[in-house]
Each structure stands twice: as structure tokens, then as C-alpha cells.
């Protein structure tokens, strides 16, 4: 296999054919699949606006951030575009434990011909920067501010990266690409859902060329995604069931927006619920296990009412269950 640093995009793909978007655009892609290329998820459904934004990142070296509520498919969207282009992709979770040294690199003791020597081991940023790699900063708004400054320079196109301890200046590889996902737009945890989200420096937000927004989708699209994920619900009966589930999810989102609920169902939760329906063959039980038990006690009656409205069936409380009943 060719070394990753020697790989180049060597063919053009039609965006229409690969992503089903009505456009004449062509996007560069690789013939060879390096180990860093994500697996193709054959049933992934692309959202045209977000896909085009991500494609602009790959085609025109734009810095693209995908922002939106949790579980809407932001991280997987970038990965699935990369998977279709055979573009090596590295996803880095910027949790509070990632340090400057993890990103930049550090001196480490290694064995060379039986002797211990100190050698600089480059971190994920310089490694990616010198290769045709799409680096994804996942949970960008969870990164610690001091850490984020490390990446300020590479946010600029052609932005060189200085390895200070090494006295080296790195030029980005022409096919290095940079993406990020975030739940907030850098203003902190305004709605109370994203504990740990940092306020971001706006000189940094400013350097992202494109900010795509991926929030909850129209019901039909969400139903199609859930059915694609859980094939046993792919028939007409399944569609009706999933439609009711998505309707419950929608009520929780409206309830959250109105301040009645402190939590809401993401598309990820709906998928999990559908998977649990497959296991338990019982939508009410699966609902309790996938969502209701994550809610505050005081809010459960309201959630039960949402269920009742969409399923025309009572949702028993857990304590009623433990006393022997099964529905
Ligand atoms: N369009 C889609 N087609 C198929 N599956 C999808 C789609 N969108 C989301 N999913 C599925 O939903 C789940 C959540 O997606 P993902 O982890 O990408 O969300 P996210 O937006 O990055 O969430 P978070 O903000 O919590 O990081 C995944 O299992 C993914 O496969
Ligand atoms: Mg994510």
C-alpha cells in the first residue's frame, strides 16, 4: 500500500451520482483506500445543504464547521462524505482532557539500536497537516480555550504551523482539510443542554469560512433515516410506527422550546428507540428504556402524555411496571 503522504486525489466524481444532489459539480477523490478512510455506511442519507457545504471544504479547501443540536448526524455526515471520496479522515474529540501537547507533540524516550534516546513525537495536528487528511475537530466547543489557540494558525488557508521546540515550520499538504462540529455557536451553554460547552474566541470562529447548520429535519426525512437504520421497520406498518415515534420526538422538541421540558429527543434517541423496539417488540417499554428514564421525575407525566397522544395508548409509570404488569 502506498504511504499515506504520497496519496493524491486522482479522479473526479460526479456529486449528482455519488450524493444524489442536483448539480453539475465534480469533486476530487482518491482511487486507493487508505486505512484512515472511514467505512461507508450504505444507508446514510445526505442532507443536500450540509453535504454541499462539506464538499466545498474538500473541493475548495474551505474550513467548514457543522453546528447543530445533538444527535443530528453532524460527525457522521463529514465521515460519510470522506468515505465516499476515499479521503483519509481523522476525527479528534476535543474533550476537556486534550492538551496542547497531544495536539502539537512532545519529546518521548524511544529505543534506537538498543539505546534510549529522546525523540520528538509529532502530535495529531502536525501529522495530519503534512498529509492528505481531513482532520475533524469534533465537539469543537468543548475544547479548552488555551488548547484552541494552537489551531488558530492552521485555520487560515495555507497557514503554516510552527513547531516551536523543533524550530521547524510546517507547510500544509495541498490536500490537508479541516472540519469541526459543535453543538453551540461558541456562545456557551445558553439553552442548558450543553454542559461543558465553552465560550469560543470570536477571532477563531471568524476563521471558519463556512458554518453549516444541521438541526432537526422534516418528519419525512427523519422517518426515512430511522427506517434505513432499522430495516425491520422498513415496511408500511413500520413506517406508521416510526411516524408516531417521530411525532413524539417532535412534541418533546416543542415542549423543550416552550420551557415545559428540560430535555428533548434527538434523532439519535429515536434511532435507539427503534432499535430497542426491535429487541423488546414493545414500543412503550422501549420508549421508557430509551428516553423516559432519562427524564426528570417531575417531567415524566408530560412525556407520558406525549406518548399517549401519538400512540393512543397509556404509558404506565415504571413503579406500575415493577408491580407485575407488563404494559
Ligand atoms: N442522515 C442520516 N442517515 C443515517 N443515519 C444517520 C443520519 N443522521 C444521523 N444518523 C445516525 O444518527 C446517529 C447520530 O449521529 P452523529 O453521531 O453523527 O450525531 P452528531 O450530530 O455528531 O451528535 P453530537 O452533537 O451528539 O455529537 C448516528 O448513529 C448516525 O448514524
Ligand atoms: Mg458528534
**CATH fold title of the largest domain:** Rossmann fold
Note poorly predicted spans.
322-327
Q: Strand fraction band? A: 15-25%
N/C terminus separation:
56 Å
Strand order of the largest sheet: 4-7-10-3-11
Based on DSSP secondary structure assignment, what is the total number of beta strands? Answer: 11
* Oligomerization status of the protein chains: single chain
Based on Cα principal axes, name the global outline. globular
CATH architecture group name of the largest domain: 3-Layer(aba) Sandwich
Rg over CA atoms, rounded to whole Å, is 23 Å
- In CATH's first tier, which class of the largest domain applies? Alpha Beta
CATH superfamily of the largest domain: P-loop containing nucleotide triphosphate hydrolases
Domain Cobaltochelatase subunit CobS N-terminal: 8-37
Organism: Variovorax paradoxus
Keywords: Ligase
GO molecular function: ATP binding; ATP hydrolysis activity; cobaltochelatase activity
Task: Describe the structure in your own words.
The protein folds into two domains: 4-213, 3-Layer(aba) Sandwich (Rossmann fold); 219-322. 37% of the residues lie in helices and 17% in strands. The protein has 13 helices and eleven strands. The longest helix has 22 residues, at 236-257. The chain starts with 10 loop residues before the first strand and ends in a 5-residue tail after the last helix. Residues 74-75, 138, 181 line the site of magnesium ion (MG).
Amino acid at each position: 500500500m502506498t504511504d499515506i503522504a504520497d496519496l493524491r486525489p486522482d479522479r473526479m466524481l460526479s456529486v449528482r451520482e455519488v450524493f444524489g444532489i442536483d448539480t453539475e459539480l465534480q469533486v476530487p477523490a482518491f482511487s486507493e483506500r487508505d486505512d484512515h478512510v472511514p467505512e461507508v455506511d450504505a444507508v446514510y442519507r445526505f442532507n443536500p445543504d450540509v453535504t454541499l457545504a462539506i464538499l466545498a471544504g474538500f473541493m475548495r479547501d474551505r474550513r467548514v464547521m457543522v453546528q447543530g443540536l445533538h444527535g443530528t448526524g453532524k460527525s457522521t455526515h463529514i465521515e460519510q462524505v470522506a468515505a465516499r471520496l476515499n479521503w483519509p479522515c481523522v476525527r479528534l474529540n476535543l474533550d476537556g482532557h486534550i492538551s496542547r501537547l497531544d495536539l502539537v507533540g512532545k519529546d518521548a524516550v524511544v529505543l534506537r539500536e538498543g539505546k534510549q534516546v529522546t525523540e520528538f513525537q509529532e502530535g495529531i495536528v502536525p501529522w495530519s497537516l503534512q498529509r492528505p487528511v481531513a482532520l475533524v475537530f469534533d465537539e469543537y466547543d468543548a475544547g479548552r480555550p488555551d488548547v484552541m489557540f494552537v489551531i488558530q494558525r492552521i485555520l487560515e488557508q495555507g497557514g503554516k504551523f510552527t513547531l516551536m521546540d523543533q524550530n521547524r515550520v510546517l507547510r500544509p499538504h495541498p490536500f490537508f482539510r479541516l472540519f469541526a462540529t459543535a453543538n453551540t455557536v461558541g456562545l456557551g451553554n445558553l439553552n442548558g443542554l450543553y454542559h461543558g460547552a465553552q465560550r469560543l474566541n470570536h477571532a477563531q470562529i471568524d476563521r471558519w469560512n463556512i458554518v453549516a447548520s444541521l438541526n432537526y429535519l422534516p418528519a419525512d426525512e427523519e422517518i426515512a433515516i430511522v427506517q434505513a437504520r432499522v430495516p425491520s421497520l422498513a415496511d408500511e406498518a413500520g413506517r406508521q410506527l416510526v411516524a408516531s415515534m417521530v411525532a413524539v420526538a417532535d412534541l418533546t422538541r416543542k415542549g423543550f422550546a416552550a420551557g415545559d421540558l428540560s430535555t428533548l429527543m434527538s434523532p439519535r434517541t429515536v434511532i435507539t428507540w427503534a432499535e430497542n423496539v426491535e429487541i423488546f417488540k414493545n414500543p412503550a417499554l422501549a420508549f421508557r428504556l430509551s428516553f423516559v428514564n432519562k427524564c426528570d421525575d417531575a417531567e415524566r407525566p408530560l412525556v407520558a402524555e406525549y406518548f399517549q397522544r401519538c400512540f393512543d395508548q397509556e404509558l404506565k409509570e415504571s413503579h406500575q411496571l415493577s408491580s407485575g404488569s407488563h404494559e
